[in-house]
Design a protein that fits this description.
The complex is a heterodimer of chains A (377) and B (247).
Chain A lengths: L1 H10 L1 H30 L3 H4 L6 E4 L15 H7 L4 E15 L5 E9 L10 E4 L10 E5 H7 L9 E4 L2 E10 L8 E6 H7 L9 E6 L5 H12 L2 E4 H15 L2 H30 L1 H10 L3 H33 L14 H27 L8
Helix pairs in contact in A: 1-11, 2-9, 2-11, 2-12, 9-12, 11-12
Chain B lengths: L18 E12 L2 E13 L4 E5 L6 H8 L7 E6 L2 E2 L5 H11 E4 L11 H5 L1 H6 L3 H14 L15 H13 L5 E5 L7 H14 L6 E6 L10 E6 L2 E6 L7
Parallel strand pairs in B: 3-8, 3-9, 6-7, 7-8
Antiparallel strand pairs in B: 1-2, 1-4, 4-5, 9-10
Classes of the chains: A alpha+beta (377), B alpha/beta (247).
Chain lengths: 377, 247
């Protein structure tokens, strides 16, 4: 009987495709929007993830994220270095600046000062050049977002910039995770960054710490807090704070939530309507089957199989559509590094299940209510 | 044939009767009103006979046939089909009883449009749980018996009305039911086709151990009946080989 159910469904091509489209559209909307949402808010942690070798970030107690930080006095570095369990500690500066390109355009940039000696604070990979270029005078390394945005027509290597009224020369390109706002990032040595960024008394944004025992980073961060009075967070904690900051301070979760809800509602509307039409058109056949001797349990299984087929096909197409979308935009820096977390297809599958269960149940009610005797009328 | 059955046997029903109804009454509610469609019908249908149930629209024949084949509960009375009091059965048992004992031929055929003639005819066997390939083979054999074996792979939309009717007959007979119920089998056919379908039904549906009831008001085929029951206002007003005068 299940085979007959499938043939009944696929035999009405118009409605079958309508149902599949409804589910595929819902799945695409839910999966794609959730994927963009998750990847976008994870960008809140990009500043942390770009510094892969720091186990702990130490900052002023009021600092919240890599971009919302209150500078500390330079003595903070020595305080942290004196805490037992700290293998190394280096200064890290993050600040905003303006650059004027040779075409005269103005661009807001983030300047990141990395440790002069170890260059800790740079992203792990370089697209062009090596970290050593920072030893040359006025050197900066631009991230790939900046390269695409400021120099769309060619390589920026050797290009001169006017950075806060001072000369900067691009000598390398870093392969970095873009920030939430896709701001252009310029990496330079800490000592050089102090020259680029307008002076205030305190300019040390963070102290990056390597633990003697990385597995004990949490305990070490607590010890640093106790002994220095500063705020210390493990890499994962600080990354999460960056994400939470975006969730708490922007309307993004609400906006994406609305779109996901719309995807669900549209799915219910299209699938519900089409499924009801399909059942209504076949009500005589279902009535005949009931008269002949097909039990309600079998009818339920038939409708469940029809819903299952529509669900699987539509869901597969929807997820495939999302994969194609992400893949086709992967070259765009805005979507760089985007991936589909495994939980998202699972959430979409659950949404599809709920849509089909709801609409299938509504449609099934009509079938079950149909009296077998109605076939004689 | 023609001998009145002994209705004083066990439970008021003669064991030889294929179908026996006693005091069958059926009410329908229409708003505040209760309309009685059948008034205490007592009836015995024999196997081996082609029985016509005749009456005007609204006379209650569809209600009676629905009750006799177990798809509509009577308000009062009892119905035995081959000795089984079908309304004493549980819901699932009654459905299974229909599946195993009754073949239906509907006026609109009610074939499934997206499967071919053979698979349509095989539906009762598939519903009984038979393997689909085997069920199809049996259905094709039945279609051949009905002279449309060559149409087995066609969809209902590719068949003429008469051919669709034959597929419906094949579906009603493929699982060898003991009772065949036909609802206006000739209503949608012209006189020649209708006659041909009735000849066919007589040939394949009427058997010693099978009862065949046809609901009709098509006076072109009354002469083919072994027995004609006339229903008027929910009561049997005539029971005989021929139609009464004036009808």
């Amino acid at each position: 009987m299940l085979w007959i159910a499938i043939r009944m469904l696929t035999g009405d091509a118009q409605k079958f495709y309508g149902l599949v489209f409804g589910i595929a559209f819902s799945t695409l909307l839910i999966t794609q929007q959730l994927t963009i949402f998750v990847n976008l808010i994870e960008r809140g942690a990009s500043g942390t993830y770009n510094v892969s070798n720091a186990d702990i970030w130490v900052m002023d107690p009021v600092s919240r994220t890599t971009d919302v930080a209150y500078a500390m006095p330079a003595t903070a570095l020595d305080k942290v270095r004196s805490v037992p369990g700290v293998e190394w500690a280096v200064p890290h500066l993050r600040s905003q600046a303006s650059v004027r390109t040779k075409d005269g355009d103005l661009e807001g940039v983030a300047v990141i000062g990395v440790d002069d000696a170890t260059l800790i604070g740079l992203p792990k990979r370089m697209l062009e050049g090596s970290p050593d270029v920072l030893s040359q005078p006025d050197s900066v390394i631009i991230d790939d977002v900046g390269m695409t945005r400021m120099f769309p027509d060619g390589s920026p290597i050797g290009e001169r910039l006017e950075l806060n009224d001072q000369r900067a020369v691009i000598r390398g390109i870093a392969d970095a995770i873009p920030s939430f706002t896709s701001t252009v990032v310029l990496y330079t040595k800490y000592s050089q960054a102090l020259n680029y960024v307008p002076g205030t008394r305190n300019r040390l944004s963070f102290v990056l710490v390597g633990a003697e025992e990385p597995a004990q980073a949490k305990a070490l961060s607590e010890r640093i807090e106790r002994e220095t009075g500063l705020k210390a967070q493990t890499r994962d904690e600080f990354a999460q704070d960056g994400i939470d900051f975006i969730i708490e301070n922007t309307g993004i979760p609400l906006n994406f939530g609305i779109t996901v809800a719309l995807g669900f509602i549209v799915g219910v509307a299209i699938v519900g309507l089409t499924f009801s039409l399909f059942i209504r058109d076949n009500i005589k056949q279902f009535g005949a089957l009931k008269a002949i001797g097909v039990t309600n349990a079998k009818i339920r299984r038939m409708v469940a199989v029809q819903a299952g087929l529509v669900g699987l096909t539509g869901y597969g197409l929807g997820v495939l559509g999302t994969v194609i979308f992400i893949w086709s935009f992967s070259a765009d820096p805005t979507f760089k590094g985007f991936y589909i977390p495994w939980q998202i297809p699972l959430i979409s599958a659950l949404a599809v299940f709920v849509i089909l269960a709801l609409t299938g149940w509504l449609a099934l009610r009509n079938v079950l209510k149909t009296e077998p005797a109605s076939v004689f009328r | 044939m023609g001998q009145p059955l002994d209705t004083t046997a066990i439970g008021g029903c003669n064991p030889e009767a294929a179908i026996c109804t006693r005091e069958v009454t059926r009410d329908f509610r229409a708003g505040q009103q209760t309309i009685t469609v059948l008034h205490g019908i007592d009836l015995d249908i024999r196997a081996g006979e082609l029985t016509f149930l005749v009456g005007e629209s609204g006379s209650g024949k569809t209600t009676l046939i629905s009750i006799m084949c177990g798809i509509l509960w009577p308000t009062l009375g009892e119905v035995k089909v081959f000795g089984t009091d079908i309304y004493e059965l549980g819901d699932t048992e009654l459905v299974e009883f229909r599946l195993n004992n009754i073949g239906f031929i509907f006026q609109q055929y009610n074939l499934i449009p997206s499967i071919d003639a053979a698979n349509n005819a095989a539906v009762p066997l598939i519903a009984q749980g038979m393997d689909r390939i085997e069920a199809r083979e049996k259905a094709v054999a039945m279609l051949e018996k009905l002279n449309i074996g060559d149409q087995a792979s066609k969809l209902p939309s590719q068949l003429s009305g008469g051919q669709q009717q034959r597929v419906a007959i094949a579906r009603a007979l493929v699982h060898e039911p003991r009772l065949v119920v036909c609802d206006e089998p000739t209503a949608a056919l012209d006189a020649t086709s209708g006659r041909r379908v009735m000849d066919l039904l007589r040939e394949v549906a009427v058997a010693e151990d099978r009862a065949c009831i046809i609901v009709t008001h098509d006076n072109r085929i009354f002469d083919l009946a072994d027995r004609i029951l006339v229903l008027e206002d929910g009561k049997i007003t005539h029971d005989g080989k021929d139609m009464p005068e004036g009808h």
